[in-house]
Amino acid sequence: MRLLIARCSVDYVGRLSAHLPEATRLIMVKADGCVAIHADGGAYKPLNWMNAPNTMVDHGDHWLVTNPKGEALTITLHEVLSDSDHPFGDDPGLRKDGVEAHLQELLAASPEAIEPGLRLVRREYPTAIGPIDLVCRDDANPVVAVEV
For the whole model, what pTM was predicted? Predict the structure, then answer.
């Protein structure tokens, strides 16, 4: 993980055009190629980012990040305040425990606690935007998706 704190401006060209004026920001470059630009206040999400796979070229005073879709992120570095590299090693992954996992198990065992007549069809059903915790049907037979 490379962490760069810099006064920078950022320009994105792709599905739309966006500009971040010059300010002090945190630029994160992950080992997989993902690049994220963060501000100190406001949201937990980055102000702008490019998901991997990317190609990043360092031109000294600016970085050009491009992806196979033809999108481009230009990060112009006006002043570098800190530049550090930190190897993270292998990630052991996320293990769910506690309230959410326990609640999901209880609801899967007794879906009628949500609605009388509700019955479990499947747990952890994959969709294009992520898994649904519980897929159920009610007495009228329509599908009911439950996200814990």
Answer: 0.65
Range of the domain at 41: 2-85
The number of distinct structural domains making up the chain is 2
How far apart, in whole angstroms, are the C-alpha atoms of residue 18 and residue 66? Answer: 15
Q: What share of the chain is helix, strand, coil (3-state, %, to 5)?
A: 10, 50, 40
23 vs 67: CA distance, rounded Å: 25
**In this predicted model, what pLDDT tens digit does every residue of 97-135 receive, in sequence order?**
667 778 888 889 999 998 899 999 998 888 777 788 899
For residues 72 and 142, membership in a common domain is answered with no
Quote the CA–CA distance of 100 and 134 in Å, as a whole number. Answer: 13
Residue 49 CA to residue 42 CA, distance in Å, equals 16
Residue 109 DSSP symbol:
H
Residues 6+ apart with CB under 8 A from 85: 1, 2, 3
User: Does a structural domain hold residue 92?
Assistant: no
Same domain, 41 and 79: yes
Type and span of the H or E element at 100: helix 99-109
Which residue reads 């971040």 in tokens? 20
